Amino acid sequence: MSFSFFNKVWASNESKPPGGTLFVVGDGEVYGEIGLGDMPHVYDPTIVFDMEYESVIDISSSRLHTLAVTRSGTIWSWGCDDYGALGRTGYAASPRPITHPSIRYIRFKKVACGNSMSMAINSKGQLYTWGSFHSDHGIFGYLPNIVIQKYPRIVNSVADLRFIEIAAGASHCLALDDQGQVYSWGCGEFGHLGRPDLQNNENRRLKQCLIPVRLDGLKDIVAIACGAFHSLALDKDGHLYSWGLNHFQQCGLLEKIDDGNINFKQANEVIDRPTMVPYFCEQNAELKRNNDGLSSTRTKMAQNGPRTERFSENNSKNDKEQLTDNYDKPKALLIAAGDYHSVAAMSDNTLRVWGRCDNGQLGIIIYPDYVYPASFKTPEVDRIYAIGYPTSNLWRCSEKIEKIICGAEHTLIMSKYGRVWGYGQNASNQLGLFHCRENVAIPTLLNPINNKGAVVNIAAGDQCSMFVIIEDDKQFVKVEEMC
């Protein structure tokens, strides 16, 4: 089905999430995470053969393995199984369902992949995990008394909670419950658990890091994301919190001071607890000021009648638009994190990006002679490698952004109308742009993907990307073509 003729919109139904056929592009030569058996890489969007007749409703990929959930609520897995992350036995390089007797009657709806750890939420919101965490010194464990968990197991310490979102980094996990509370666990060598009480006590860390604990100071959270060794949490008011490894400024904690310059004193390499990102606090404060100003204007209108100067019929249309533009300051709605970079999708369909940028991770063209605010250079080659202050990459999506997700060094953006853009590293064709086997510096429409049909879900690993493309026209409502 060619997507160029018309756009389609998912007719939302929470009880039946959109499902479709799973396609993959990129490289899986080392671990088989693309799910094509002995085929090491694919340059064109290719159906994952063993799942051709399965309707996939959720998908997640990491550096080492991939998980998918089908319409029946079954989890399929493939990739590296050295540490139990596949949750099953048998051939690892092709998708196979997890059929352990303990989950025979459990229906799952969401999955997330760490490097050697897997997570899932069932239809009741209960949390399951399996695999093992790793540290710089090797295997870290699954629980204090279990090194490797080889099949999905309910997390007993939080079994009474209802979770709505999960995320995994290289060696840690986050889970968001229906009360807006965030839980973290795993290996926290770089502060990415947000639990500073564990940092300086090795024995306590070994015993307690592996148990999910609610993070103090975070409330009303609506979205979470994990980089390799850093974490993000977004609250309902658009305030963003970050913590963990910050050596590429992926936590985004630099802020402007009174003269407009950047205060570099906050460029610490490790952030050991959830810390509000100043940029988004500034944005929300400005929004509140404009909101208060508009409220004051409306109060005056009510007192003085409709013949106020600003809204007089004799005033120009531009005055009204200017007031509206000032009031509608964008706030963060979606977040995502790559290995060492972070992204926020704003309410005006623009992006704010920060962190590592030497392989196009931020969707910004880095000009050699241009001075970027809050940028960091490698002295030996005089090259910018990171930007520490959330920055607009000057691209605006022409359609509402529905989902954004990061691989190790690339980013995918999916619109409400089922189209996908991407940018960042493309050396392994993980963006599906075979004609351009270099870094893609700005968000680019991924036509090889979009020409297959409407995309309803996306996932990004290290050197590959996954796309769920709709299989049933009845699930969509035809709408007018958008430019």
Task: Offer a quick outline of the entry.
The protein has helices at 202-208, 278-304, 317-327, 447-450, and strands at residues 7-10, 20-27, 41-47, 56-61, 65-70, 75-79, 96-97, 108-113, 117-122, 127-131, 133-135, 138-141, 149-154, 163-168, 172-177, 182-186, 213-214, 221-226, 230-235, 240-245, 255-256, 262-263, 270-276, 332-337, 341-346, 350-356, 375-378, 383-396, 401-406, 410-415, 420-424, 440-445, 455-460, 464-470, 476-479. The protein is mainly β and 483 residues long. 10% of the residues lie in helices and 40% in strands.
Account of the 3D structure:
The two termini are 19 Å apart. It is globular and about 65 Å long. The chain has 483 residues and is mainly beta. It has one domain: Regulator of chromosome condensation 1/beta-lactamase-inhibitor protein II (Methylamine Dehydrogenase, Chain H, 7 Propeller). The model is unreliable at 1-14, 294-327 and 477-483 (pLDDT under 50). It has a five-stranded antiparallel sheet, with no helix packed on it. It has helices at 202-208, 278-304, 317-327, 447-450, and strands spanning 7-10, 20-27, 41-47, 56-61, 65-70, 75-79, 96-97, 108-113, 117-122, 127-131, 133-135, 138-141, 149-154, 163-168, 172-177, 182-186, 213-214, 221-226, 230-235, 240-245, 255-256, 262-263, 270-276, 332-337, 341-346, 350-356, 375-378, 383-396, 401-406, 410-415, 420-424, 440-445, 455-460, 464-470, 476-479.
